[in-house]
């Protein structure tokens, strides 16, 4: 890398541990909570759903409709694997900045190390680092750990496999709660209804301890562009979701729990019944935080549209068909307005998309 370019990147990617004060470039004078108050989980809390509960499907339907987010326990992903993926992520972000930059995301690429991808939409910087994995992690991991990358690659591959299985199961439950049977009603679910052809990316997020957390922002408010997102967070809280009419609600980490977000494509598929949840990550004065988001969507050639079973004379389709890539392009252009650019019809109840009230929604 030419040295002037790498100097510029290092200036943009500081060694957070060396900063004793919050630089002005990281000070968010205006955060979204100007309009919305913040609550801890004592006010209202995101539903926690046991996947072994015989009522799991109904509970998921209710959570998707009212919150657009829920946590799952007894999901079948082992604690050992969650610990291992957390450990690989922590090892990655603990590398010296110069080493991490060897696997920097290229300006037009998606995989690799860098700031949150949504950073370009904001004038202030976010107190976080990210690493995106699309496809195999081998090449980038070899750059990070030239002599010792295979174990880390294996952990990521196993985690992605487990996530894919869980995501397929959650798809069946979420669709089932809308009255849609994966096997009969969704062609791309495949003969075993395992959504084998689905696409996905893994997003590792690291939020170092911050000297002035009240003025900093870990990851600004956004909805995910996915069908659904499976988020693992370590034991440090920081995730908040916006509950319409209430405010920002903390999503407290539950031992071995996974947070499931409804994404924009599920909102479209459900013809607006399931809201894609607006969420953000705050930072902590003394503790670092890690999160690992499995971003799950349809195969690249599949167009997502309001499902025919949810459409009728009194329920016209609210959105036009769109592929994941087309939607990502729309989101990158129109940010929080992306859903309205896909909309073909104003809902009969006259409500606008929840996200349009906020001016800081970005790609997930
Ligand atoms: O760190 C978190 O809790 C949120 C991460 C997130 O929203 C994302 O990666 O899209
Ligand atoms: Fe997100």
Major sheet: arrangement of strands: 2-3-11-8-13-6-5-4
CATH-assigned fold name: Jelly Rolls
**What is the C-alpha radius of gyration, as a whole number of Å?**
20 Å
Q: Number of helical segments? A: 10
Cofactor: L-ascorbate
GO biological process, one term: gibberellin biosynthetic process
InterPro entries: DIOX_N, IPNS-like_FE2OG_OXY, IPNS-like_sf, Iron_ascorbate_oxido_reductase, Oxoglu/Fe-dep_dioxygenase_dom
Pfam families: 2OG-FeII_Oxy (PF03171), DIOX_N (PF14226)
How would the blueprint of this fold be written?
Elements: H1 3-12, E1 38-39, E2 48-50, H2 56-66, E3 69-73, H3 79-93, H4 97-100, E4 112-114, E5 129-133, H5 138-144, H6 150-176, H7 182-185, E6 199-207, E7 219-222, E8 228-233, E9 239-243, E10 247-250, E11 258-262, H8 264-269, E12 279-281, E13 289-297, H9 324-334, H10 338-342
Parallel strand pairs: 1-10, 2-3
Antiparallel strand pairs: 3-11, 4-5, 5-6, 6-13, 7-12, 8-11, 8-13, 9-10, 9-12
The structure holds 2-oxoglutaric acid and fe (ii) ion.
Fe (ii) ion (FE2) is lined by residues 222, 224, 279, 293, 364.
């Amino acid at each position: 890398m030419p040295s002037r370019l790498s100097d510029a990147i290092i200036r943009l990617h500081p060694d957070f541990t060396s900063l004793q004060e919050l630089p002005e470039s990281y000070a968010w004078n205006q955060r979204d909570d100007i309009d919305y108050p913040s609550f801890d989980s004592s006010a209202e809390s995101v539903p926690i759903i046991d996947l072994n509960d015989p009522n799991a499907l109904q509970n998921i339907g209710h959570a998707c409709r009212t919150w657009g987010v829920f946590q799952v326990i007894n999901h079948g992903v082992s604690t050992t694997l969650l610990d291992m993926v957390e450990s690989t992520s922590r090892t990655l972000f603990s590398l010296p900045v110069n080493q991490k930059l060897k696997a920097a995301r290229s300006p037009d690429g998606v995989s690799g190390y860098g700031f949150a991808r949504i950073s370009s939409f904001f004038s202030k910087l976010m107190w976080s680092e990210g690493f995106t994995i699309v496809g195999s992690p081998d090449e980038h991991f070899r750059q990070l750990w030239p002599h010792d990358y295979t174990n880390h690659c294996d952990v990521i591959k196993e985690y992605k496999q487990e996530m894919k299985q869980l995501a397929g199961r959650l798809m069946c439950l979420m669709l089932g709660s809308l009255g849609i049977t994966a096997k009969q009603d969704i062609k791309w679910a495949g003969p075993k209804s395992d959504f084998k052809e689905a696409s996905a990316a893994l997003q590792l997020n690291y939020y170092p301890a911050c000297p002035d957390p009240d003025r900093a922002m870990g990851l600004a408010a956004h909805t995910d562009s996915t069908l659904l997102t499976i988020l693992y967070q370590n034991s440090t809280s920081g995730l908040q979701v916006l509950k319409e009419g209430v405010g920002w609600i903390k999503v407290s980490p539950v031992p071995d729990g996974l947070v499931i977000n409804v994404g924009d494509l599920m909102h479209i598929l459900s013809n607006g019944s399931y809201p894609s949840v607006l969420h953000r990550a705050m930072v902590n004065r003394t503790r670092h935080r890690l999160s690992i988001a499995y971003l799950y969507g349809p195969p690249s050639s599949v167009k997502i549209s309001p499902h025919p079973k949810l459409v009728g004379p009194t329920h016209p389709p609210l959105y036009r068909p769109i592929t994941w890539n087309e939607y990502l392009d729309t989101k990158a252009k129109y940010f929080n307005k992306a859903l309205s650019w896909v909309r073909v019809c104003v809902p009969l109840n006259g409500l606008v998309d929840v996200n349009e009230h906020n001016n800081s929604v970005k790609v997930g």
